[in-house]
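B., you asked whether I could sanity-check this one before it goes into the benchmark set. Here's the sequence:
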Amino acid sequence: MQNPFIYLRSLRHVDHTVFAVSDGQKYYYDSQFGRRMAYSSGQQVKRSIIESLISNLETPYAPITFRWYLDYAAKDKEDRKSKAKAKEGLADVSCDPSFPDQLLGGYMLAESDSFAVKRRSPLSISAMRPLHPLLGGMEKEEENMTFDRSNNPSTQIKVFWRGDEGKGKPEEVEEADLHEWLDNNKRNLPTRKFIQSQKRASGLFVYDAAIDMRTLFSVSTNKVEPELFPHIEKRLVEAGWIKGKNVFGNCLICPKEKREAIILALAQALINWRITSNQARTFSLMETLAVAVHHDANQVAYAIRGNLLEESESDKMRAEPMIDETSSAEIFVTPSCAGYIRGAIGEASALDKAAKNLADKMLAFDYENQTFKAPHI
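And here's what the prediction gave me:
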């Protein structure tokens, strides 16, 4: 079988902006060049891609339940509506691949009273980081950010009484009692978190993505390491999911009509996503300069890269970005690229062509038979 993976590399220009991440602007240290490298985590990039996908499909997110506990001392049980203290718990996902964000994003739920269910995402997403250590930087100005889910209509909050100062068995709080506790304590329970000490980033940044078409629309029915709860599996079969088999064993395959709709939306999302959680005052278009696509990961790495130049008279190392047309990857260059890479000639329709190329590659795979439908170059 031909390579069932599709690899993508995209080059973006980042201008004086903030990547919203916890515990300060994340960075890693490049020991060769002695520089701190600002980056947007793969998780944040992936979430932004999924948000774009859902927007393109005009479909709802899978429900998520946020848990809260109202802890109180045993002696305060009768007076717990005024003396209980709020403690934040976990967020539970539905583990239902009929929702595109769960199908493509993956999920895991492990509770003490049930077996664990886990699906690995068929999308591998890298961090967005500088194209070369000398072509991207992190500034010292600090910014405050928020991690916000209040705009998701399916977001829920669950609140539980928990005695013995947090050690007792949780008991769900009735709505009327919760309202009384909120009034007595003058509290609210937000679905957002405040994140401080963010720093700004500028330069040329890249991110990479790999699509595993073997599992893109296939959900394992393995009972030893389950991806599905029994009631979800039954519901998928009733909804027309196809019983099949891939290299990992028996599985359910998403119906053809739904697959094709998701493919078209995913192809656009992988290229045209944006970080929605950076603040308005630090907004950057993060315009795409070039995209490379191929079934060989090395070819996309060759196609868009940074080249280290010979040391200048000032003994300062320099680097320049490069689009290498000798690579066998399909390369799509936008007009903006000419402002940052010498000799780059772009076209306004480059990103549309890149999305079509991605979609054609995904549509060329026969997900039910795990083969390509036609000769692929």
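One thing to flag: The radius of gyration is 24 Å. Otherwise nothing jumped out at me.
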